[in-house]
Automatic annotation (TrEMBL), chains A, B:
Originating species: Microthlaspi erraticum
A Pfam family: MCD_N
Protein name: Malonyl-CoA decarboxylase C-terminal domain-containing protein
GO biological process: acetyl-CoA biosynthetic process; fatty acid biosynthetic process; malonyl-CoA catabolic process
GO cellular component, one term: mitochondrial matrix
Length: 532, 532
């Protein structure tokens, strides 16, 4: 790497506290448009590209952008389309989030399906006889029947097209316009952000439609797998630094190590979004499957690569919040496994060391609701015959209840085990995580509850935990949970310091993915089942 | 180029009389599957790829392929899907055209839209109120209204998806499967071939659906423009030799010249169909716009490139009959013009020297039908009051009638001018084209009729001639027609030896393309108008 590139990278590091760091699984509620994109657009404007460079970037009003959007949808000359699309992107970035919302709502409503036309066609459609399944077959041809069939197929064709909203035109035009795919991803990030505060069915429909389109355009066939190394351009490495959200990259040395001996980094790239991966995965080559993230991040020096038998996926980061819910990772992991196996046949175990981002949130919410019921029932036991029992459940075992209450002897942590646990876990300083007296008491309780959370807590038939859901739908199984595996502030806060190893076995990936997809079955090792 | 490559190229030349040569505009009625593709598939089978390699390539029965097609559509595991898709492609190539037709008919009918589901949804849809255009707007939110809107959008969404035929799954899976896009193009070529003999509305619908999909997947944004030179792999150059159909490449020297000084060759490539262009264009750099193809093919040596002021597109060939009707050429020509202009700013004229493939066919059919009317009317004049006059029209001017009759003095060519012309033109030896006595008589007649054919004869509002339609929709204008511009047997046979120059003016391309698209307006020079 040249000195110049290094300098650029250093600048990138300094900036990297500024841009929103985004992981695959957690998106901030407020997603600002990527400031870098904005810079780029402003530069373009200064160069006089686009027709409206006479408008200042901030002075451009909503109405002008609204008008440009209309032109971008309705223009028919390719030259005009190109200019208006560039102009529309530029204008969009200049809008406040409020104005963007207004604009997107206008897009959703005024460029929706032409429902009068649909109703007209639907009526015609119902009036026609469905063609019998023998036209054109071995039977005698009847020209009259053929003509009727043709009419039917034509009306059906027209109906199918009439059901497409007009805004599809904008999406399709942007998809083939330079920078347009990236812009669409930002548009969707804005939509998702707006929809967390606002329930507009038409906006929700616009968002779903865009998601479907993006999923199609970013199909695995269009993505290129590329190993990211220290020889890659600094502009690309800068992105890795900025987007790595699972285990932040602390300095240049850290980055270099993650791309060096005993490590691999692979990214999925799309030709229309050059120079930055849509998703990337960091791999550590190890002798055994690591139980703690400390082993992975601090094994200096790493073992020689020819001694490695395990490939550990210790970080997967998505870079585009606007692609949330589009499973880019599935084929990534399968392809990375194939690639690593080919390169290093002696590596036979493929596992992750993953965070459990939803564990504490779920547990605290469960404890909060259940300790209320327990409060009604002054016996202090969750085994209750009180009227609220319908909703109450046994969160803690009697032993656990007792052990927790014994902790609260010296201070009044709470009136029952759940309250004690809740108060301990939600304390800001997280003292429990460094207390030699509390840790042995909490370990069996939190490990059991964590196993329950991973294997039994579901939402719409799928694992409640987003990372669990990600790996399970990709065909992994839950292998092992590890106590105090991530002692970072975030690790303690999100999952009580527990991390989980998901294991991928090539021979099972397809079966497991399918049974999870079909029936929500979560495959897990006997070891983890025994904790329940 | 290495000796080995040359040897391969020579072999390609020897084979090139064998594969069907296909131009952009004329497709043989019977399109056999590409024999090379077949070879490839057989090799795969011998290597034991796919689950059914135990079936001999020829012994594989229709039922097996039918079953594989079903699996390829209904399988849900990606591994199985991949195998069945490969297997299906292989199996398809082993089928006779009759069995392919049977298979495609099964695909069209049994994997069609689920119409019961559509009817059910349509009824639900009609029962719902269309959401008013103010939900989520500035007005007070009504949860009930929002819920109703949500239901409406969901039903509409379901209806949209229900209207997609099941065979879309096969198309989409093939599109992202290696070799699948090329296979789909062959599938469509077969469909087009079957539909010339058979009118099956369901098969027609299948074909239209596939065309729409292919058009989407091969959008200009996905195509890469690449200049083809003598340094390209022989395997690619071999394709140029094999597919050049407008002015066949006669030997290696000829090929080298078309890629050498004063010449350019550009191709559009798709990443999924590597190593062969979907369409390619040959360009000659000249001092003036050539009037005859002889000047282009035989200007040995060409003028120095820095003296060139005109770029002449003298041959455009499409390689995939299955992509007929998908306008790949539009952006090709625009981009080639831009590229050439950038490279050579002194080139200011961009024109074609194009065949008129439909002229003779149209003229002979017109003469044949009209001379029948003239035969009824024994005055020998086309100006007639006979009962058949409703359909009769004046094909020849009185002068022309007279001139033609004067030719038939020495032999009884016919009883009227049209008969004489018809007999002369349809004579197998095409003696007229070398007769010093006939040529001066025929020139003004054929040139006038040719101008009429190009500027006035239409089909569904568009130019009847396929090459004319191609260039006009791309924004060209008809500049000039040239007498005895192509003296080859094919040239005489197709267009009486006449060729046409279409001219592209960058500043007019968009306007002309649009007015042609909108109203069918054909832009032409005053010179050619004056011939009418």
């Amino acid at each position: 790497m040249s000195k110049k590139n290094l300098a650029i990278l250093m600048r990138a590091r300094m900036r990297s506290t500024n841009p929103t760091k985004l992981s695959l699984f957690q998106f901030p509620k407020e997603i600002p448009s990527n400031p870098q994109e904005n810079d780029h657009i402003v530069r373009n404007s200064n160069q006089g590209i686009g027709t409206s460079s006479d408008f200042g970037n901030t002075g451009r009003s909503y109405d002008v952008v609204r008008e440009t959007m209309h032109s971008a949808i309705s223009a028919s000359k390719t030259g005009v389309i190109d200019i208006t699309l560039t102009d529309f992107q530029e204008g969009y970035f200049s809008l406040s989030l409020e104005d963007r919302e207004k604009l997107l709502l206008a897009l959703a409503k005024e460029y929706d399906v032409n429902r009068e036309q649909v109703r007209e066609l639907v009526k015609q459609y119902l009036g026609l006889e469905t063609p019998s399944s023998d036209d054109g077959g071995q039977q005698v041809h009847s020209p009259k029947k053929e003509a009727l069939s043709s009419v039917f197929y034509r009306i059906e064709w027209n109906l199918r097209h009439a059901l497409k909203p007009t805004y599809e035109t904008l999406f399709e035009r942007l998809n083939t316009h330079p920078g347009g795919l990236r812009f669409l991803s930002i548009l969707r990030a804005d939509l998702l952000s707006i929809l967390t505060k606002e329930n507009s069915p038409s906006l929700r429909t616009l968002e779903s439609y865009l998601k479907e389109k993006l999923g199609m355009w970013l199909s695995p066939a269009t993505l290129e797998l590329h190993q990211i190394t220290w020889d890659d351009p600094a502009s690309l490495l800068e992105k890795i630094v900025a987007y790595e959200a699972v285990h932040p990259i602390s300095n240049l040395l850290d980055l270099k190590r993650r791309l060096g001996i005993g490590r691999r980094c692979f990214g999925y790239f799309h030709p229309s979004i050059p120079g930055e991966p849509l998703i990337f995965i960091e791999v550590a080559l190890m002798e055994t499957v690591a139980q703690t993230i400390q082993e992975v991040l601090w094994d200096n020096p790493p073992i020689p690569e020819n001694q490695a038998t395990s490939a550990l996926f210790y970080s997967i980061s998505s870079t585009q919040p606007g692609l949330a819910g589009i499973n880019l990772g599935k084929f990534l992991i399968k392809r990375v496994i194939t690639l690593v196996k080919k390169d290093m046949p002696h590596v036979s175990t493929f596992a992750t060391l993953s965070p459990i981002p939803g564990f504490m949130k779920w547990l605290l919410s469960k404890l909060s609701s259940q300790s209320r019921f327990a409060g009604d029932d002054h016996s202090g036991s969750t085994q209750s015959n009180s009227p609220s029992s319908t909703f109450s459940e046994r969160v803690l075992l009697p032993d656990e209840e007792q052990a927790l209450m014994s902790l609260s002897d010296d201070s009044s942590f709470g009136s029952n085990g759940m309250e004690v646990l809740m108060n301990l876990l939600s304390a800001k300083n997280s003292n429990w995580a460094t207390s030699p007296r509390m840790l042995p008491v909490l370990e069996p309780i939190l490990m059991r509850l964590c196993a329950r959370y991973l294997l039994q807590e579901k939402k719409r038939g799928k694992a409640l935990d987003s990372v669990a859901n990600f790996h399970l739908q990709n065909g992994a199984m839950v292998e092992r949970i590890n106590w105090m595996a991530d002692r970072s502030e975030k690790g303690i806060h999100q999952s009580g310091g527990i991390m989980v190893n998901y294991v991928y076995r090539l021979e099972n990936i397809e079966d497991y993915a399918q049974s999870y997809f079909g029936s929500g079955k979560i495959h897990a090792s006997p070891g983890i089942h025994s904790r329940l």
